[in-house]
Every structure is written in structure tokens, then in C-alpha cells.
Q: What sequence folds into this?
């Protein structure tokens, strides 16, 4: 059996300090590593407004992990997320080959380059 690619987004409570938030994120990275998963990308999206209140809070610290792991790792990892009172919500998704390719392009910034090129082309065509 080979490992799958996964993406987990979790929201931490906004009452944490910056250091506490980073410690919590590092804790979950260590949990994945101890379970044999390989975290190959991590993004902190920062403090964002929630679409609806969760636990009477309207904001939260968003964090994204992309990792490779065996399927049985997910259940243990999600149990750790559920046990931690600092985590308000989380979602883990198994990535297919198209999502993996999309994420690689997004990380390299290829989508922004295309938009800039299209915008420049539109500007030159309206000038003539």
C-alpha cells in the first residue's frame, strides 16, 4: 500500500498569542512526523473572519498542511485535532492527481503570472 496525498486546514481559536499559535502548529507537524507522514507544504493564512460564529468567536487562525501519509494515519491525526481545545474546526481532504498538480502550480505562483500577462495584453490592446 502506498501513501496518499492529503490536505488539512484547521482553525485555531483567536485567543491564542502568536507564539502559542506557532507552538500549536508545530505540535501538529510533530504529530504527523511521529506517525510517519511527510509534511511537504505548510501555510499560515493568519487571522481571518469566519463565515459564521464558532464557539462564540468570529475570527480564527487558519493553517494549511499538505502531506503524504498512509490512510490509517488520518484517523489518529484527526483524533489529536479533536482532543486539542485550541482547534475550533478542521477538514482533511485526500488529493487526487489534478489537485496535486494545481497545488504545485499555485505554490510556484504560475496563476498570478498568467493574470499579469493577460492584464498587460489587455492594456496594450486597448491603447491601439
A:
Amino acid at each position: 500500500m502506498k501513501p496518499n496525498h492529503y490536505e488539512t486546514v484547521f482553525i485555531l481559536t483567536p485567543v491564542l498569542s502568536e507564539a502559542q499559535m506557532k507552538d500549536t502548529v508545530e505540535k501538529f507537524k510533530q504529530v504527523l512526523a511521529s506517525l510517519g507522514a511527510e509534511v511537504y507544504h505548510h501555510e499560515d493564512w493568519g487571522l481571518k473572519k469566519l463565515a459564521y460564529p464558532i464557539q462564540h468567536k468570529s475570527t480564527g487562525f487558519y493553517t494549511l498542511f499538505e502531506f503524504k501519509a498512509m490512510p490509517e494515519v488520518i484517523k489518529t491525526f484527526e483524533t489529536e485535532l479533536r482532543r486539542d481545545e485550541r482547534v475550533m474546526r478542521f477538514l482533511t481532504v485526500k488529493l487526487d492527481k489534478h489537485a496535486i498538480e494545481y497545488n504545485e502550480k499555485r505554490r510556484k505562483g504560475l496563476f498570478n503570472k498568467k493574470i499579469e500577462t493577460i492584464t498587460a495584453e489587455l492594456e496594450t490592446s486597448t491603447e491601439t
